[in-house]
Design the sequence.
């Protein structure tokens, strides 16, 4: 899923890309905010995805075709809401070892 959404991220203009990275790097609500952004994008298009019963390859093609058509502000708001609604239970559902949006500072310093 991350590869799928990273494909979308590269399609934003410079200002939107910088805003998205800022949201992801702050770890304000979660160090896994990138996952919530991915879910928010899929949630926004869920009716089309489910309605057309898309397989994985079709879904990737569809996501690639969203280039320049994703309104970032509602996606960020929805991702934040999803993160808040998921709360601790949502964080607990993320498999151990899932990389964060950006490594936490003390993780980068350990071992060196």
Sequence:
């Amino acid at each position: 899923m991350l590869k799928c959404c990273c494909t979308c991220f590269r399609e934003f203009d410079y200002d939107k890309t910088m805003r998205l990275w800022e949201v992801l790097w702050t770890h304000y609500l979660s160090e896994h905010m990138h996952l919530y952004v991915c879910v928010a994008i899929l949630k926004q298009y869920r009716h089309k995805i489910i309605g057309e019963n898309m397989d994985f390859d079709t879904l990737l093609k569809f996501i690639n075709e969203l280039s320049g058509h994703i309104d970032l502000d509602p996606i960020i708001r929805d991702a934040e809401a999803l993160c808040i609604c998921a709360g601790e239970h949502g964080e607990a559902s993320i498999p151990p070892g899932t990389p964060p949006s950006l490594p936490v500072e003390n993780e980068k310093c350990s071992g060196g």
In short: Confidence is low (pLDDT under 50) at residues 106-112.
